[in-house]
Specification:
The protein is mainly beta and 353 residues long. It has four domains: 97 residues, Thrombin, subunit H; 82 residues, Baseplate protein-like domains (Phage tail protein beta-alpha-beta fold), CATH 3.55.50; 80 residues, Bacteriophage T4, Gp27, baseplate hub, domain 3 (Elongation Factor Tu (Ef-tu), domain 3), CATH 2.40.30.150; 71 residues, no CATH class. It contains five helices and 20 strands. The strands form four sheets. Strands 1, 2, 3, 4, 5, 6, 7, 12, 13, 17, 18, 19 and 20 form a 13-stranded mixed sheet that branches. Helix 2 packs antiparallel against helix 3. It is globular, with a radius of gyration of 25 Å. The two termini are 40 Å apart.
């Protein structure tokens, strides 16, 4: 029997110290007063948070795994919310009760706090994902999953002297066609980049199970850089070609008619064209580039109760908010999880139009 997450359930939050050698739960903490976990794709370590202990708070750094145990009519389920590094405690009290606050960081902090040896490099034609995984395993306490086969490096990769292991491994991961991710148990993964339309939504959020917090669904400032004309220019040994692709669709908010002006993006001597290029070949590149650039990113922030499965960063969700004219697939870009009875999740999801 499965839990119906749209109905009430008994909730118990549990916190376990993780053994960094085995990456398994080692002992349960019974002195946690409150906790909040944030996942944000714009931050280096992807995760952060805060946790408060009572007067018996431990001192020093440790790894804590957060669970929610739910029970309902004989059915039970455990959700793993996250695995984070706890450090930098501070104390406070009112003369009767002492508590301790501590910051939490994602397990990628192991990579952010260390640097590659000077001159670290990966030779051309190597698999950058395999190199990234090997390097991560040599530095991190967290387990690192097996990467897929990556796109071979076109050139030698050499890390900058001032960059961290996280910078280097993220660069290699992106060159291999993936993004760096961390699951709730703290395992590092290499996620292939996929179009949102190719991903199955893990949850649907609408007016019946969530509420919009930020009703202003705003177009980002990137709209002002989105072109409605792409021009490809090629010249070589007296031979020149100029081709344009124009967005003149009156139904498009980005077209020349809608915006009242031309916004030009020019590409000079693209590598795809050879010395004997034709106007049709140049126009084909202009068409592809205009389609790639003709999008506007939108986002909405909403709150919802805890659900299973709980979407992770980068997961696809279906949004249906009739009041705001939203009916689309979107990608989870930020979450704030309030670890308390009846705790809610504040979620930001983004999509392009």
């Amino acid at each position: 029997m499965a839990i119906d997450w749209t109905k009430g359930a008994r909730q118990t939050w549990r916190y376990w110290v993780v053994d960094p050698k085995t990456w398994r739960d080692s002992r349960e903490l019974d002195n946690v007063v409150s906790c909040e976990v944030t996942r944000d794709e714009t931050t280096d370590t992807l995760e952060s948070g805060s946790i408060e202990f009572d007067s018996d708070a431990p001192v020093g750094e440790m790894i804590v795994r957060v669970y929610l145990d739910a029970e309902q009519d004989g059915a039970s389920e455990r959700l793993c919310i996250g695995t984070l590094v706890v450090q930098t405690p501070s104390w406070k009290g009112d003369g009767r009760v002492m508590t301790s606050d501590a910051d939490m960081y994602g397990v990628l902090c192991d990579l952010a706090d260390d640097q590659p040896p000077i001159g670290y490099s990966v030779v051309a034609r190597s698999d950058p994902l395999a190199s990234a995984a090997t390097a991560a395993r040599g530095v991190m306490r967290a387990p690192v999953g097996a990467p897929p086969d990556g796109d071979p490096l076109e050139d030698h990769y050499v890390a900058d002297d001032g960059e961290s292991w996280l910078d280097a491994i993220r660069d290699l991961t992106e060159k291999g066609g993936c993004t760096l991710a961390v699951d709730t148990y703290g395992q590092v993964r290499f996620e292939p980049r996929r179009r949102l339309t190719a991903i199955t939504p893990v949850q649907t959020f609408d007016d019946s199970n969530s509420s919009v917090l930020d009703a202003n669904v705003e177009v980002t400032s990137d709209m002002y850089k989105v072109p409605n004309v792409v021009q490809v220019v090629w010249s070589d040994a007296g031979h020149s070609v100029v081709a344009e692709e124009v967005n003149d669709d009156e139904g498009s908010s980005l077209s020349i008619q809608s915006r009242g002006r031309r916004i030009l993006h020019r590409i000079s001597n693209p590598e795809e064209l050879s010395s004997g290029c034709t106007e049709s070949a140049a126009r084909a590149i202009a068409q592809v580039k205009l389609a790639e650039l003709s999008h506007v990113e939108r986002s909405v922030t909403f709150s919802h109760a805890l659900v299973s499965p709980l979407p992770a960063l980068g997961d696809c969700v279906r949004l249906r908010y009739d009041k705001y004219g939203i009916d689309c697939r979107a990608r989870v870009s930020r979450q704030v999880i309030h670890c308390e009875t009846g705790g809610m999740v504040e979620c930001t999801a983004t999509w392009t139009e």
